[in-house]
Fold each of these.
Amino acid sequence: MSANLRILPVGDDALLVEVSSGAEAEALHAELSRRRSAGLLTVRELVPAARTVLLDGLTDPVRLAAELASAEIPPVAARTETAVEIPVRYDGPDLAEVAAHWGVAEEEVARIHAGTEFRVAFCGFAPGFGYLTGLPARYDVPRRGTPRTAVPAGSVALAGLYTGVYPRSSPGGWQLIGTTDAVLWDHTREPAALLSPGTRVRFVPASPGVRT
Amino acid sequence: MTDRALAVVRAGALTTLQDQGRPGHAHLGVPHSGALDPGTAALVNRLVGNPASAAVLETTLDGCALRTRCTVTAAVAGAPCAVTVDGRPAPWGAPVHVPAGALLEVGAATAGVRSYVAVSGGFLAEPVLGSRSTDLLSGLGPAPLADGAVLPLGCPSTPSARVDAVPLPAPPTELILRVTPGPRADWFTPEALRTFTTRAYRVSPASNRIGLRTEGPVLERARAGELASEGMVLGAVQVPPDGHPVVFLADHPTTGGYPVIAVVRAGDLAAAAQAVPGTPVRFVGVRRR
């Protein structure tokens, strides 16, 4: 991949690099992370998002922008570590609505979701909240018309083609399909975040009422 | 009494512990946080002989009151306010000797918004990702001060600095924010871009540590539709659908989905932290360095 990067200056010491797909953004983030680990790139924050990667705290953004303009970005390599497994009870209040959007039975929503291998495309919204990609395009769902004022911690949710788990109770407009006891964020744990960009994730169905 | 601590007698409207923040975790959704006016936080630390990294208190508009359990040196600066020890006037912007058992009162700001309070030894709290800052957006770090709380202190490392008085900028009567074009300036009409850098705005009362909200002429977009979520920097000026610019401050979200019309120079944000609601704001376009 090359030549389709759009490089946008942000203030005096940051660059926003835009690409044309989520997969390209993941590849770009992986390549920039590799360069950073190898000591080839000095940057305070490297923030992947849906179609962009932000590089903040650069010493010479102009030179880096010139360098990136002709950079070769290898496609994202298959991750070899095992997927993080998140046990989930498919008991969310929006299960019927999601089933209707998908045109399937409610049990089928659980089967499709648990049968998908996800990857954390990026994080944001709250510490420990990952935007997980992997669902095929036909499973797109809109956000709720009216966001809930309080979504319980551990809610497994869908919006667009993303799935995610609320790390703590907060307002939110995603469609809630299930619940997990997995701890997404614990600052006394190393690492604090269960999910970080690039992590592979599988949801494992647990019986309703069974504490996992 | 020998325990190194202060008791909170009056927490004030919003008083939080702040240090230099927690950089390097934006990709996990963790804001930078830290003192909104880092220069003043470093200064009050210097006045009491602390390293710049020590945690200080950041008050909001109406100060706070603390009872010492040990002898300390304290310093208050930032928003000007009356400082008293057991009711007797004490200097602002200079080291103050506070004996054990005394009441240190930080009065309401007579101008500006946020006063900073350093105490020799620094405030202790469990660091989260290397920082003792309270992050109001994500709830990381210690909770805001509450009446009756006890704040443990570290041990003073060196004798207090012999600094008697320091020059400090007065809180702004007009906030001038130098801006460079944002990554999504092309989402706005030429008219909106002109309006943004030529018309007067005011600081909205809805401002907080997350963002300086403004009131003024509405900025119209040149294009409709949604912007996919993307990384946000400190000082980013985001324009939500209501058309009123919001300047992102220390507790800002690490990603966001509204277009950024401009970015405020980092050096101008300390003044933004001291601008009271109603203060006129002008965004002045400058070239990138």
Amino acid sequence: MAEPKITMKEVDHVARLARLALSAAEKERMRRELDGILSYIDKLRALRTEGVPPTSHAVPMTNVMREDVPAPSLPQAEMLANAPDRSGEFFRVPRIIEESIEE
Amino acid sequence: MLTDLTIHELGARFRRGDATPTQAAREYLARIAALDPTVKAYLTVTGDAALARAAEADARFKSGAPLGPLDGVPLGVKDVFCTRGVRTTCGSKILEGFVPPYDATVVARLLGAGAVILGKLNMDEFAMGSSTENSAYFTTRNPWDLSRVPGGSSGGSAAAVAADLAAATLGTDTGGSIRQPAAFCGNVGLKPTYGRVSRFGLVAFASSLDQVGPFAKDVLDAALMLQAIAGHDPLDSTSAAIPVPDYAAELGLGVQGLKVGIPAEYFIEGLDAEVEAAVRAAIETLKGLGAKTESISLPHTEYGLAAYYLIAPAECSSNLARYDGVKYGLRVPGARDLIDMYSRTRGVGFGAEVKRRVMLGTYALSAGYYDAYYGKAQKVRTLVQRDFQKAFERVDVIVAPTTPSVAFKIGEKEDPLSMYLNDVFTIPVNLAGLPGLSVPAGFTKAGLPIGLQVIGKAFDEAMLLRTARAYEAATTWRERKPELAA
């Protein structure tokens, strides 16, 4: 067996970065499948790319500027209408800041 | 039946007064009620809104002032497009119940042209997939064989046109998601040049690759649909401020004297023998119509797929960060803190393929791997682009198979990599931002459609349409319809 491209520890780390809660079974499956996909992708190593500029966009892109003209935004009520939880004119989320820091 | 007709045939009836938009809308809604439980193309049917809009179109025809070729024509749109007041799920549970407060520009343009929108079409979740099996709701069936996939990710859009459940539809193509399902379902599918059509109001997957385009019953219809949606949009800074030609006017120019490139790398081991035979026969047909063929080489084709499966997931992992359970869609209750709420919501709300790509993209962008994976893929993207540039110095248009095989069975491809390999002939076009089209080019012995892919220079969709139209006019594939019983 070849050395795995991606370890369980890395799966945990990447899932944390991606803000994805995965079950133990999902993680194992993910490790196996990502391993297979990354092994396939390794064929890119065979290609010499020294001096080749990267392409991030298929067509030449430049900054697009426009006049700074005020215009109405979407109404607040419509923007809040899809919120899963709200309080008045705000999106409500679980507490972010601890009530007190004990040290 | 009005549901058999193309957009241009239907429009001619409306103008002559032989039929009304309301009659057409009613026929389509009745057919959807009868057949969609079998095909499962629609996620949402908007019957009342469709009939109201059809009545408005009736009045325009009656007063002798119709808007144009799409006026009163019943269409469907992929559920990836925001539709004001109509739920938009993008095939995902995380957007269940989402009702957008605005229309995507392409939807607004169709409505502005008088079109009657019948509903929203099924798709792979967040447009990730090649079979519509990744829809969080159900799998759409291929109308030619209900045990097979319609392709993906715009499988609902392709199946709806094939089964006459809409006169034409809109889909999106990030790595082949219009051309591959068009090939599997036996209709015309066009992915325009990147930037030709606005992406505003489209639920983003991979922003540097996504492009909106039509599925149609014939090439003229595809041209009419493109005409309606193409052109610069101030709301999308990546949409190109380039004039849009009159596509229908250029359709009849034929292929006499055109130089058609045949890429050696698209006729490889693994290409289905019946697909190869059909595509080679199509090339002979084009020659018979006066085209000159030339062998060309696109040497980096085999690396395109690997580069795509780093670039698209990287962009997806970034775009999908907005699904955090705060602003819209699902939120899983009972979280300890904010991060826990994000993670649990996303863990429950995303399906397996979306999670796979978010993970792959996050990995490829993470510290220590960025240069080896994402950076390398972007350089390979340059090489793929250069291949096409070189080829187009010698030829006007390139033709090749759309897919290596015909529609496969539902559940057949469990391994993600084997599913990805299905897009090997469509992906390079997205990496290079070029326009591509799939046109029906025959059937296998088992009666499954085969697609011919036509690839063009940037912003030269007219050349694709004209080549496909010349081929279509010389063949009879579009006359065959799938047999469906309610």
